[in-house]
Amino acid sequence: MKNVGGIDRIIRIIVGLAVISWGVYAENWLGAIGIVPLLTGFIRWCPAYLPFGFKTCKK
Protein backbone atom coordinates (compact mmCIF):
# COMPACT_ATOMS: atom_id res chain seq x y z
CA MET A 1 0.00 0.00 0.00
CA LYS A 2 1.58 3.27 -1.12
CA ASN A 3 1.49 6.33 1.11
CA VAL A 4 4.20 8.56 -0.43
CA GLY A 5 3.15 10.82 -3.31
CA GLY A 6 4.93 12.58 -6.16
CA ILE A 7 6.56 15.67 -4.67
CA ASP A 8 7.21 13.91 -1.36
CA ARG A 9 8.87 11.08 -3.28
CA ILE A 10 11.14 13.41 -5.26
CA ILE A 11 12.19 15.30 -2.12
CA ARG A 12 12.98 12.03 -0.31
CA ILE A 13 15.14 10.78 -3.19
CA ILE A 14 17.03 14.09 -3.48
CA VAL A 15 17.60 14.33 0.28
CA GLY A 16 18.70 10.69 0.44
CA LEU A 17 21.22 11.15 -2.36
CA ALA A 18 22.48 14.40 -0.81
CA VAL A 19 23.05 12.81 2.61
CA ILE A 20 24.80 9.79 1.08
CA SER A 21 26.96 12.10 -1.06
CA TRP A 22 27.87 14.16 1.99
CA GLY A 23 28.83 10.97 3.84
CA VAL A 24 31.09 9.87 1.01
CA TYR A 25 32.64 13.34 0.70
CA ALA A 26 33.19 13.71 4.46
CA GLU A 27 34.24 10.07 4.80
CA ASN A 28 31.66 9.72 7.54
CA TRP A 29 29.50 6.66 8.14
CA LEU A 30 26.55 8.88 9.13
CA GLY A 31 25.94 9.36 5.42
CA ALA A 32 24.40 5.88 5.49
CA ILE A 33 21.34 7.48 7.11
CA GLY A 34 20.52 8.73 3.61
CA ILE A 35 19.51 5.19 2.70
CA VAL A 36 16.26 5.60 4.68
CA PRO A 37 14.71 8.49 2.70
CA LEU A 38 16.12 7.07 -0.53
CA LEU A 39 14.54 3.68 0.08
CA THR A 40 11.20 5.11 1.20
CA GLY A 41 11.17 7.31 -1.90
CA PHE A 42 11.77 4.38 -4.22
CA ILE A 43 9.27 1.98 -2.65
CA ARG A 44 6.72 4.82 -2.05
CA TRP A 45 5.91 3.64 1.47
CA CYS A 46 6.88 5.29 4.76
CA PRO A 47 6.32 3.46 8.05
CA ALA A 48 6.36 6.76 9.98
CA TYR A 49 3.10 7.75 8.23
CA LEU A 50 1.19 4.69 9.50
CA PRO A 51 0.41 5.76 13.10
CA PHE A 52 -0.97 9.08 11.86
CA GLY A 53 -2.87 7.71 8.86
CA PHE A 54 -1.03 10.24 6.70
CA LYS A 55 -0.78 9.85 2.90
CA THR A 56 0.72 12.17 0.32
CA CYS A 57 -0.30 10.11 -2.69
CA LYS A 58 -3.52 10.35 -4.64
CA LYS A 59 -5.89 7.42 -4.63
Pick out the low-confidence regions.
none
Q: What is the helix tally?
A: 2
Structural class by helix and strand composition:
mainly alpha
What's the number of structural domains?
1
N-C termini distance: 11 Å
Share of β-strand residues = under 5%
Percentage of residues in helical conformation = 40-55%
Arithmetic mean pLDDT? 94
Q: What is the number of E strands?
A: 0
Biggest sheet descriptor: none
Question: Any idea what the shape is?
Answer: elongated
Order of helices and strands: HH
Cα-based radius of gyration, to the nearest Å: 13 Å
Structural overview:
The protein has 59 residues and is mainly alpha-helical. It has one domain (6-52). 51% of the residues lie in helices and 0% in strands. It is built from two helices and no strands. The chain has helices at residues 6-26, 35-43. α1 (6-26) packs antiparallel against α2. The radius of gyration is 13 Å and the shape is elongated. The protein starts with 5 loop residues before the first helix and ends in a 16-residue tail after the last helix. The mean pLDDT is 94.
Give a topology summary.
Layout: H1 6-26, H2 35-43
Helix pairs in contact: 1-2
Features:
59 residues; elongated
Summarize the structure.
The protein is mainly alpha-helical and 59 residues long. The chain has helices at 6-26, 35-43.
